Amino acid sequence: MKQEEEGEVDAGEDEEEQQQQTATAPQDRLFAVEFFGSFTKVLSAGLNFAGCDVCGCCVSFRSITKRVEQNDVYVETKTKDNVFVLVKVSVQQQVIPEQAESAIYKLANVSAQIDSYVSDVVRSQVPQMNLDDAFENKDHISQAVAQTLTRSMHEYGFQIIKALVTELKPSQDVMNSMNEINKQKRLRDAALMAAEAEKIRVVKKAEAECESARLSGEGIAKQREAIVEGLKRSVTSGSQETLTSEKISELLLITQYFETLKEIGANSKSNSVFIPHSPAAGVQEISGQIRNGILQGGPGQQRM
Question: Does the predicted model carry a pTM greater than 0.85?
Fold first, then answer.
Protein backbone atom coordinates (compact mmCIF):
# COMPACT_ATOMS: atom_id res chain seq x y z
CA MET A 1 0.00 0.00 0.00
CA LYS A 2 1.34 3.52 -0.90
CA GLN A 3 0.72 6.87 0.84
CA GLU A 4 1.70 9.94 -1.24
CA GLU A 5 0.73 12.84 1.06
CA GLU A 6 0.38 13.43 4.79
CA GLY A 7 -2.46 11.71 6.60
CA GLU A 8 -3.09 8.76 8.81
CA VAL A 9 -3.89 5.46 7.19
CA ASP A 10 -4.32 2.17 9.07
CA ALA A 11 -4.24 -1.22 7.27
CA GLY A 12 -5.07 -4.75 8.37
CA GLU A 13 -2.54 -7.57 8.68
CA ASP A 14 -0.47 -8.46 5.59
CA GLU A 15 -1.18 -11.75 3.85
CA GLU A 16 0.91 -13.48 1.25
CA GLU A 17 -1.60 -13.20 -1.60
CA GLN A 18 -4.53 -10.81 -0.97
CA GLN A 19 -5.86 -8.66 1.84
CA GLN A 20 -8.60 -6.14 2.45
CA GLN A 21 -7.38 -2.59 3.11
CA THR A 22 -9.00 -0.33 5.72
CA ALA A 23 -8.06 3.32 6.16
CA THR A 24 -8.71 5.84 8.93
CA ALA A 25 -9.02 9.42 7.65
CA PRO A 26 -8.68 12.39 10.05
CA GLN A 27 -11.46 14.95 10.41
CA ASP A 28 -9.69 17.75 8.53
CA ARG A 29 -8.61 15.78 5.43
CA LEU A 30 -10.07 13.97 2.45
CA PHE A 31 -8.41 10.89 0.93
CA ALA A 32 -8.61 9.84 -2.69
CA VAL A 33 -8.24 6.09 -3.21
CA GLU A 34 -6.35 4.91 -6.32
CA PHE A 35 -6.42 1.34 -7.62
CA PHE A 36 -3.40 0.73 -9.85
CA GLY A 37 -3.10 4.52 -10.22
CA SER A 38 -6.72 5.03 -11.23
CA PHE A 39 -9.03 7.08 -9.02
CA THR A 40 -11.87 5.08 -7.48
CA LYS A 41 -13.44 7.09 -4.62
CA VAL A 42 -12.96 9.65 -1.86
CA LEU A 43 -12.74 8.63 1.78
CA SER A 44 -14.34 10.90 4.38
CA ALA A 45 -13.36 11.15 8.04
CA GLY A 46 -13.39 7.96 10.09
CA LEU A 47 -12.72 4.30 9.36
CA ASN A 48 -13.22 3.37 5.70
CA PHE A 49 -12.84 0.26 3.52
CA ALA A 50 -10.36 1.10 0.79
CA GLY A 51 -10.58 -2.16 -1.22
CA CYS A 52 -8.62 -5.32 -1.79
CA ASP A 53 -4.88 -5.08 -2.15
CA VAL A 54 -2.20 -7.57 -3.16
CA CYS A 55 1.07 -7.23 -1.27
CA GLY A 56 0.40 -3.50 -0.84
CA CYS A 57 0.94 -2.76 -4.53
CA CYS A 58 -2.61 -2.18 -5.81
CA VAL A 59 -4.13 0.51 -3.56
CA SER A 60 -2.61 3.96 -3.00
CA PHE A 61 -3.88 7.21 -1.48
CA ARG A 62 -3.79 10.97 -2.10
CA SER A 63 -5.02 13.46 0.47
CA ILE A 64 -6.03 17.12 0.65
CA THR A 65 -6.97 19.34 3.59
CA LYS A 66 -10.52 20.54 4.22
CA ARG A 67 -9.38 23.54 6.24
CA VAL A 68 -9.68 27.12 5.03
CA GLU A 69 -6.31 28.18 3.65
CA GLN A 70 -5.07 31.71 2.97
CA ASN A 71 -2.83 32.91 0.17
CA ASP A 72 -1.24 36.36 0.37
CA VAL A 73 -0.71 37.73 -3.13
CA TYR A 74 1.51 40.78 -3.77
CA VAL A 75 0.91 42.65 -7.03
CA GLU A 76 2.85 45.68 -8.21
CA THR A 77 1.01 47.92 -10.63
CA LYS A 78 0.43 51.61 -11.37
CA THR A 79 -2.56 53.87 -11.04
CA LYS A 80 -4.17 56.12 -13.64
CA ASP A 81 -2.02 59.05 -12.49
CA ASN A 82 1.17 56.98 -13.01
CA VAL A 83 1.91 56.16 -9.37
CA PHE A 84 3.33 52.68 -8.76
CA VAL A 85 1.74 50.87 -5.84
CA LEU A 86 2.16 47.50 -4.17
CA VAL A 87 -1.19 45.80 -3.58
CA LYS A 88 -1.54 42.95 -1.08
CA VAL A 89 -4.57 40.70 -1.54
CA SER A 90 -5.40 37.97 0.98
CA VAL A 91 -7.45 35.13 -0.53
CA GLN A 92 -9.12 32.49 1.64
CA GLN A 93 -10.16 29.30 -0.14
CA GLN A 94 -11.50 25.89 0.85
CA VAL A 95 -11.99 22.55 -0.88
CA ILE A 96 -15.56 21.65 -1.89
CA PRO A 97 -15.97 18.08 -0.52
CA GLU A 98 -18.22 17.01 -3.40
CA GLN A 99 -15.52 18.08 -5.87
CA ALA A 100 -12.51 16.67 -4.05
CA GLU A 101 -11.45 14.72 -7.14
CA SER A 102 -11.07 17.94 -9.15
CA ALA A 103 -9.25 19.67 -6.30
CA ILE A 104 -6.74 16.82 -6.02
CA TYR A 105 -6.11 16.00 -9.66
CA LYS A 106 -6.76 19.10 -11.77
CA LEU A 107 -4.42 21.68 -10.23
CA ALA A 108 -0.70 21.10 -9.77
CA ASN A 109 -0.19 24.28 -7.72
CA VAL A 110 -3.23 25.98 -6.19
CA SER A 111 -1.31 29.00 -4.87
CA ALA A 112 0.26 29.74 -8.26
CA GLN A 113 -3.12 29.55 -9.97
CA ILE A 114 -4.69 31.95 -7.47
CA ASP A 115 -1.73 34.32 -7.82
CA SER A 116 -2.28 34.46 -11.58
CA TYR A 117 -5.98 35.25 -11.33
CA VAL A 118 -5.48 37.88 -8.61
CA SER A 119 -2.67 39.60 -10.53
CA ASP A 120 -4.79 39.73 -13.67
CA VAL A 121 -7.78 41.31 -11.88
CA VAL A 122 -5.72 43.83 -9.88
CA ARG A 123 -3.76 44.95 -12.95
CA SER A 124 -7.02 45.49 -14.82
CA GLN A 125 -8.78 47.41 -12.01
CA VAL A 126 -6.15 49.66 -10.39
CA PRO A 127 -4.86 51.34 -13.63
CA GLN A 128 -8.39 52.72 -14.15
CA MET A 129 -8.26 54.66 -10.86
CA ASN A 130 -6.29 57.57 -9.48
CA LEU A 131 -4.30 56.94 -6.33
CA ASP A 132 -6.93 58.53 -4.07
CA ASP A 133 -9.70 56.57 -5.80
CA ALA A 134 -7.76 53.33 -5.34
CA PHE A 135 -7.59 53.92 -1.58
CA GLU A 136 -11.30 54.76 -1.47
CA ASN A 137 -12.40 51.81 -3.65
CA LYS A 138 -10.50 48.93 -2.06
CA ASP A 139 -13.80 47.15 -1.49
CA HIS A 140 -14.58 47.40 -5.22
CA ILE A 141 -11.23 45.75 -6.03
CA SER A 142 -11.90 43.02 -3.45
CA GLN A 143 -15.32 42.28 -4.96
CA ALA A 144 -13.86 42.06 -8.48
CA VAL A 145 -11.16 39.62 -7.29
CA ALA A 146 -13.67 37.50 -5.36
CA GLN A 147 -16.08 37.27 -8.31
CA THR A 148 -13.35 36.25 -10.76
CA LEU A 149 -11.84 33.66 -8.39
CA THR A 150 -15.25 32.21 -7.51
CA ARG A 151 -16.05 31.56 -11.17
CA SER A 152 -12.61 30.24 -12.04
CA MET A 153 -11.74 28.13 -8.99
CA HIS A 154 -15.11 26.42 -8.76
CA GLU A 155 -14.15 24.37 -11.80
CA TYR A 156 -11.16 23.06 -9.85
CA GLY A 157 -13.13 22.15 -6.73
CA PHE A 158 -12.40 25.19 -4.59
CA GLN A 159 -14.74 27.78 -3.10
CA ILE A 160 -13.54 31.31 -2.28
CA ILE A 161 -14.44 32.43 1.22
CA LYS A 162 -12.96 35.94 1.13
CA ALA A 163 -10.71 38.05 -1.05
CA LEU A 164 -9.51 41.15 0.81
CA VAL A 165 -7.24 44.00 -0.25
CA THR A 166 -5.36 44.33 3.04
CA GLU A 167 -2.68 46.77 1.90
CA LEU A 168 -2.21 49.34 -0.85
CA LYS A 169 1.21 50.92 -0.52
CA PRO A 170 2.83 53.47 -2.84
CA SER A 171 6.56 54.23 -2.76
CA GLN A 172 8.01 56.09 0.21
CA ASP A 173 8.63 59.24 -1.87
CA VAL A 174 4.99 59.33 -2.92
CA MET A 175 3.86 58.84 0.67
CA ASN A 176 6.10 61.70 1.81
CA SER A 177 4.70 63.93 -0.94
CA MET A 178 1.11 63.08 0.01
CA ASN A 179 1.84 63.83 3.66
CA GLU A 180 3.42 67.16 2.69
CA ILE A 181 0.39 68.07 0.56
CA ASN A 182 -1.97 67.28 3.43
CA LYS A 183 0.26 69.25 5.81
CA GLN A 184 0.21 72.33 3.57
CA LYS A 185 -3.57 72.08 3.13
CA ARG A 186 -4.05 71.99 6.87
CA LEU A 187 -1.67 74.92 7.37
CA ARG A 188 -3.60 76.88 4.74
CA ASP A 189 -6.90 76.06 6.42
CA ALA A 190 -5.45 77.08 9.78
CA ALA A 191 -4.22 80.40 8.32
CA LEU A 192 -7.63 81.08 6.76
CA MET A 193 -9.39 80.31 10.01
CA ALA A 194 -6.96 82.55 11.95
CA ALA A 195 -7.49 85.40 9.45
CA GLU A 196 -11.25 84.96 9.64
CA ALA A 197 -11.09 85.04 13.43
CA GLU A 198 -8.95 88.20 13.32
CA LYS A 199 -11.43 89.77 10.89
CA ILE A 200 -14.30 89.01 13.23
CA ARG A 201 -12.39 90.51 16.17
CA VAL A 202 -11.60 93.70 14.21
CA VAL A 203 -15.18 94.06 12.97
CA LYS A 204 -16.64 93.44 16.40
CA LYS A 205 -14.19 95.90 17.95
CA ALA A 206 -15.14 98.56 15.37
CA GLU A 207 -18.83 97.89 15.94
CA ALA A 208 -18.28 98.19 19.70
CA GLU A 209 -16.35 101.47 19.29
CA CYS A 210 -19.06 102.81 16.98
CA GLU A 211 -21.78 101.90 19.45
CA SER A 212 -19.72 103.34 22.30
CA ALA A 213 -19.20 106.61 20.41
CA ARG A 214 -22.90 106.81 19.56
CA LEU A 215 -23.95 106.25 23.15
CA SER A 216 -21.29 108.69 24.35
CA GLY A 217 -22.61 111.31 21.92
CA GLU A 218 -26.15 110.72 23.07
CA GLY A 219 -25.01 111.05 26.66
CA ILE A 220 -23.16 114.30 26.00
CA ALA A 221 -26.16 115.68 24.09
CA LYS A 222 -28.53 114.80 26.93
CA GLN A 223 -26.06 116.21 29.45
CA ARG A 224 -25.88 119.52 27.60
CA GLU A 225 -29.64 119.57 27.18
CA ALA A 226 -30.02 119.11 30.93
CA ILE A 227 -27.44 121.85 31.59
CA VAL A 228 -29.25 124.27 29.28
CA GLU A 229 -32.59 123.55 30.90
CA GLY A 230 -31.05 123.99 34.33
CA LEU A 231 -29.46 127.30 33.35
CA LYS A 232 -32.71 128.56 31.89
CA ARG A 233 -34.60 127.72 35.06
CA SER A 234 -31.94 129.17 37.33
CA VAL A 235 -31.62 132.43 35.38
CA THR A 236 -35.34 133.04 34.76
CA SER A 237 -36.55 131.75 38.12
CA GLY A 238 -38.89 134.28 39.75
CA SER A 239 -39.04 136.54 36.66
CA GLN A 240 -40.88 136.76 33.41
CA GLU A 241 -37.67 137.04 31.35
CA THR A 242 -37.22 134.67 28.41
CA LEU A 243 -33.71 133.68 27.34
CA THR A 244 -32.84 133.75 23.67
CA SER A 245 -30.81 131.02 21.98
CA GLU A 246 -27.82 133.43 21.83
CA LYS A 247 -27.85 133.89 25.59
CA ILE A 248 -28.28 130.16 26.17
CA SER A 249 -25.27 129.40 23.95
CA GLU A 250 -23.12 131.91 25.81
CA LEU A 251 -24.12 130.40 29.17
CA LEU A 252 -23.34 126.92 27.89
CA LEU A 253 -19.92 127.94 26.56
CA ILE A 254 -19.02 129.73 29.79
CA THR A 255 -20.04 126.66 31.80
CA GLN A 256 -17.93 124.33 29.63
CA TYR A 257 -15.02 126.79 29.83
CA PHE A 258 -14.94 126.71 33.62
CA GLU A 259 -15.42 122.93 33.70
CA THR A 260 -12.36 122.59 31.48
CA LEU A 261 -10.31 124.79 33.79
CA LYS A 262 -11.54 122.73 36.72
CA GLU A 263 -10.44 119.44 35.10
CA ILE A 264 -7.00 120.85 34.25
CA GLY A 265 -6.51 122.12 37.79
CA ALA A 266 -7.71 118.85 39.36
CA ASN A 267 -5.03 116.83 37.57
CA SER A 268 -1.91 116.70 39.75
CA LYS A 269 0.31 115.84 36.77
CA SER A 270 -0.88 118.69 34.58
CA ASN A 271 1.83 120.94 33.09
CA SER A 272 -0.55 123.60 31.76
CA VAL A 273 0.61 127.23 31.72
CA PHE A 274 -2.07 129.90 32.27
CA ILE A 275 -1.70 133.00 30.11
CA PRO A 276 -3.49 136.20 31.23
CA HIS A 277 -6.67 136.55 29.26
CA SER A 278 -10.22 137.75 29.56
CA PRO A 279 -12.73 134.86 29.74
CA ALA A 280 -15.64 137.10 28.86
CA ALA A 281 -13.96 138.42 25.73
CA GLY A 282 -12.92 134.95 24.72
CA VAL A 283 -16.39 133.57 25.19
CA GLN A 284 -17.94 136.43 23.26
CA GLU A 285 -15.50 135.86 20.41
CA ILE A 286 -16.24 132.13 20.35
CA SER A 287 -19.98 132.67 20.49
CA GLY A 288 -19.70 135.22 17.69
CA GLN A 289 -17.87 132.71 15.51
CA ILE A 290 -20.58 130.11 16.17
CA ARG A 291 -23.35 132.55 15.28
CA ASN A 292 -21.60 133.63 12.08
CA GLY A 293 -21.13 130.01 11.06
CA ILE A 294 -24.81 129.21 11.64
CA LEU A 295 -25.94 132.31 9.72
CA GLN A 296 -23.61 131.53 6.79
CA GLY A 297 -24.64 127.87 6.71
CA GLY A 298 -28.35 128.68 6.58
CA PRO A 299 -28.39 130.50 3.19
CA GLY A 300 -26.11 127.83 1.74
CA GLN A 301 -28.57 125.08 2.66
CA GLN A 302 -31.46 127.04 1.18
CA ARG A 303 -29.64 127.44 -2.16
CA MET A 304 -29.06 123.65 -2.30
Answer: no
